[in-house]
């Protein structure tokens, strides 16, 4: 069984937790200390500039090739979030929480929740 540290990656830059100093976890996502530093720099720059110009989505400034290179990272983050969600649902099932309650929490039917997560419990 692989070490959990090998599975954890930053949801932003996709670096492994073993390649950075610190990774902070949120509900289904993780952020490394390097990305936090970058975020802090961006926020500080925004405070200094106080720009009022509307912001375009990031992909508006990217070439098709750059977007294609970025897609696997987005898919990997989605897979990480899905894995985390399956873990949470599996834990709920160990507490005998019903498929109906899990489905309601996720905005889906009991049947849909069972079909999506049944193999993990």
TrEMBL record:
The keyword Hydrolase does not apply. Keywords: Chaperone, Metal-binding, Zinc. Residues 1-51 form the ClpX-type ZB domain. It comes from the Bacteria. InterPro entries: Znf_CLPX-like, Znf_CppX_C4, Znf_CppX_C4_sf. Zn(2+) binds at residues 10, 13, 32, 35. GO terms for biological process: protein folding. One of its GO terms (molecular function) is unfolded protein binding. SUPFAM superfamilies: Glucocorticoid receptor-like (DNA-binding domain). Pfam families: zf-C4_ClpX. Gene3D superfamilies: ClpX chaperone, C4-type zinc finger domain. Belongs to the ClpX chaperone family. This is ClpX C4-type zinc finger. It comes from Nonomuraea solani.
């Amino acid at each position: 069984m692989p070490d959990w540290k090998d599975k954890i990656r930053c949801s932003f830059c996709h670096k492994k937790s073993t390649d950075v100093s610190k990774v902070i976890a949120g509900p289904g996502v993780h952020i490394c200390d390097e990305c936090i530093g970058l975020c802090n720099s961006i926020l500080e720059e925004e405070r200094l500039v106080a720009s009022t110009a509307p912001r375009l989505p990031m992909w508006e400034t990217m070439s098709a090739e750059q977007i294609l290179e970025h897609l696997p990272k987005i898919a990997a983050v989605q897979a990480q979030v899905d894995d985390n969600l399956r873990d949470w649902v599996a834990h709920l099932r160990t507490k005998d929480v019903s498929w109906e309650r899990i489905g309601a929490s996720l905005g889906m039917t009991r049947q849909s929740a069972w079909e999506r997560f049944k193999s993990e419990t």
